[in-house]
Amino acid sequence: MIIRIFVFGIFLLFTLPVFAQSSLEEAYKSYLLGDWSNSLFEGLEIERNSSNPQIFYLLGMNYLKLEDFPRARDYFRKVIKNFPQSELYESSFIKLGDAYFLEGNFDKATLTYNYVLKNFSSTQFKPLIYLRLAQSYAKQGLWRKEKEYIGKIKREYPESVEKKYAEILEKRGFFFTIQVGAFSHKKNALRVVKRLKKRYPVYLVKERFGDLLLYKVRVGKFKERKRAEDIASSLIDKGYPARIYP
Question: What predicted TM-score, i.e. pTM, was given to this entire model?
Fold first, then answer.
């Protein structure tokens, strides 16, 4: 029985015994609907009777969504170790990098993404990897490297989805900033600005998401992450939900 499923732009084509078809389809359906706990449970049940890269990959994706990054990496490594001929081999390396990135281990994330660029000739995932590298370098405050990969996306893949996200990174600027609130009503944002402006370099950013216009209150433009962390810590102590960007 051949099953074809589209997940995050990746076309999965694989053959399973008839008895496994329904369970696997249900597991993928749960995943696509955002029911990751149920998808994980269904995937683990299938794993008992069938060992194949699609099951391991699905389990890795569910653990990634559930923020269990070590277990996510375990399953992506199973694909990498046991199925080097699989269609999911290269994308498992990318997801391995994503698990490091989401966990905040940007050094290992960049090492993994660069490994893929060096060792795979396929250009299918290059714009995505360039974007991940730009994001990873931004998180580390390596602004020159971030600019380098934003430039690669814009030059080499001007029609890609990733170009839009690269332009968002570029528009945001090459610095760390601290967001302390996002408001749909400007007067509420200005109230926070007024409270903070005597002690902090506070400013307002307007961002539109469809029909929704948000007023975001941010503090500072720092080249060094340590300085941003110190200011964010002082804001948290004062009761503000401070978060460092990027």
Answer: 0.79
> Can you list the alpha helix ranges (DSSP code H) found in 49-105?
53-65, 69-82, 89-103
Assign 124 to helix, strand or coil: coil
Longest distance between any two alpha carbons in the chain, whole Å: 68
**What's the rounded Cα separation, in Å, for the pair 85 and 215?**
49
Residue range 46-53: average pLDDT?
84
Q: Would you say 4 and 11 are in contact if contact means Cβ atoms under 8 Å apart?
A: yes
Q: Which domains does the chain have, with CATH numbers?
A: 2-122 (1.25.40.10), 175-245 (3.30.70.1070)
Phi-psi region of 61 (alpha: psi -120 to 50; beta: other; left: phi over 0): alpha
Residue 74 backbone dihedrals phi, psi, to 5 degrees: -55, -45
SS3 content of the chain, % helix, strand, coil (to 5): 60, 15, 25
Number of C-beta neighbours around residue 172 at 10 A = 13
* Chain mean pLDDT for the chain: 89
Span between the terminal Cα atoms of the chain, in Å: 45
